[in-house]
Amino acid sequence: MSTARWVLHLPTTATSAEGVHRLAQALRDSLRHVSALDFGELTISTEDDQSTRRRVWCDAPLGGDRRCALRTNHPGRCPDR
Q: Which domain of life does the protein's organism represent (predicted)?
C-alpha cells in the first residue's frame, strides 16, 4: 500500500496576482466538497519562476477541523480563533 501523495499543478492564463487569487477562490468555492483537494496548501507562482511559490490562504487552525480561509497575511486575527 502506497502512502505517497500526488500534487496537481494547474497552469492558468491569469495575467495578474489578483486574477489568479480570484480564480483560486472560485475553484475553492465550487470544489470544496472534493475531499482529495487541499485548498489550504494552494500556492501560486509566476510563470517564469515556478520554483518560488506563495501560499494563497492563511490556513491557520481554528479548532476542531476548521482552518482560516482568509488570504495569507490578512490583517487582524483569524475569525473565531
A: Bacteria
